[in-house]
Amino acid sequence: MLTGGPLDVLTGDYLAELTMLILGRDRLKDPDLGYARTFLRQLEEGLGLAHERGVRIVTNAGGLHPAGLAAAVRALAAKVGVPVTVAHVEGDDLTARHEGALTANAYLGGAGITACLRAGADVVVTGRVTDAALVSGPAAWWFDWSAEDHDRLAGAVVAGHVLECGTQATGGNYSFFTAYDVRRPGFPLAEISPDGSAVITKHPGTGGVVSAGTVTAQLLYETQGPRYLGPDVTARLDTVRLTDDGPDRVRISGVRGEAPPPTLKVGVTRIGGWRNEVVFVLTGLDVEAKAELVRAQLAGALEGVADARWTLARTDHADADTEETASALLRLVVRDPSPDRVGRALTSAAVELALGSYPGFHVTAPPGPAQPYGVFDSASVPATQVPHTAVLPDGTPLQIPAPPTAPSASPEEPDALSAGPAEPTAPSAGPGDPATPSASPEEPAASPAGPAEPAAFPASPAFEARGSGGGAPEGVGGAAPAVSGVEPRETVSGAGPRETVRAPLGRLAGARSGDKGGDANVGVWVATGPAWDWLRDTLTVELFRALLPETRGLTVLRHELPGLRALNFTVTGILGDGVASGHRFDPQAKALGEWLRARHLDIPVHLLPPPEGTGT
């Protein structure tokens, strides 16, 4: 990033929910730890270059000990002979208020970062701030925005959300990756304007791609409704406009902002107990009977264990030409408050079945000891009760007042628009309306008149499990039912439903999924207006549950984002106690969206892109 082109501020986001747990365990071993030490190794290579080019560095790598990392940065600067000023932001650590917590940190906004930069800091280190604050804070400094510049701040927050996961915005983790060379995607950057609009791009010559699709995918990532609540501003995702601004350039504009809620989210981690696992390999015939034998043989050893979960992944193929593809995997995960009940004695008992169990017995790893696992939870706290403090380069602590807030729902409550926003007064415009319905699902053809105008929105103040039957029931997807108060749409006026074909949803739609504590979110988008009409009417909560049977019995919320031609689903509790508890095959729900895309349903033929190689 420092050598590839011009840059004013370089940001670094180091704090995932799992990272806080890891840093908490580090701090238990040594009170002087608790920050991301990898940041120092990276900084040693680039600090001199950043100083030479006048690039400010802003990072949340301070984790649980921002003051400690700030001191370490000063020591590093002295060692390499680079005269930089360092400031840090603190006050987010609320562990003392949460009995039994390993960590408890409020998500601060960008105002402390702004203050540090205004005081002349070259490097700003923070603890737990929102990921987007690493961008909105510097933007507010650069343009001298006030706390009530809600639209401008919301635009910067949206840009920050696009940047926060790095190459996820430039072709990484992208549904339509086969259309591009994404072996070494470049990192994204945002060119932010005084009005808060931004262009997402990347340095010339770097790999990957910036497109309306990659930006849409990241906008849908780990969000839970049209209102993106933050400590500085509430950004209205249902007002976002995306337009093509040239090769590898996507403009974000029209973002409306509202006052932030009066409370801050607090991420709380705890040591939940001890876990262990054994994976048995079942090869060839009688897979189900082999699995049942193992379960019966270990039943006695599992008596008294608090939680024992068996899952059988039928990765085996009939008449396979390799042993690996002839094999299925039987996974046992155990958790308990006591390490003894799930320790080496249990895993050894499993392995000791080898000579007296099913034919071909073997496991993927030797017996191991129990490992501690963590749980993640969230709470809320009045923003006025969090001592948001900027410690300036000269050591002066500056208290950052909480911004004026709206008397709205807390960040943990669903948005008032969860049933879907009102019908737009103009045609929905997402990532570029195609000129013809044969445009690919990723890069629609540009209209001769330029990008279509986005929908008009109300003004806001100042914003597959195996054997599941092959997807949706036959007939679903052709004649769209009415859902959420929306009337069925005909594909051609007066013509009725078109011919359908059984196909994976992913031939038409992209998806991006991820975790929020024990919940998962799945964002699904399409590229054309007709495809959006079909998706909106067809992919109901009921169909979502049918396509993903693991979500049955769980609360699923569906949000509509017409401006992005997208639906966003939140699945409550599917991840249990969060990523660190590790009870699920995909503990962070990163592939949940791709599973959804692989499910089959009846899709109108005219909406699908032509098969590859047809030349049409």
Report on this model:
- The chain has 616 residues and is an alpha+beta fold.
- The protein is 21% helix and 23% strand.
- The chain has helices spanning 17-29, 37-53, 66-80, 111-118, 133-143, 150-163, 212-219, 287-298, 344-351, 529-538, 541-547, 592-598; strands spanning 9-12, 56-59, 86-90, 103-106, 123-126, 188-192, 198-202, 227-229, 234-236, 241-244, 250-253, 256-258, 263-283, 307-313, 327-336, 362-363, 371-382, 389-391, 397-399, 500-504, 510-516, 519-525, 556-561, 566-571, 600-604.
- A six-stranded mixed β-sheet has the order 1-2-5-3-18-19, with helices on both faces. Strands 4, 13, 14, 15, 16 and 17 form a six-stranded antiparallel β-sheet that branches.
- A hairpin with a 2-residue loop joins β21 (510-516) and β22.
- α2 (37-53) packs across α3 and α5 (133-143) packs across α6.
- The longest helix has 17 residues, at 37-53.
- The relative contact order is 0.12.
- The model is unreliable at 408-470 and 479-495 (pLDDT under 50).
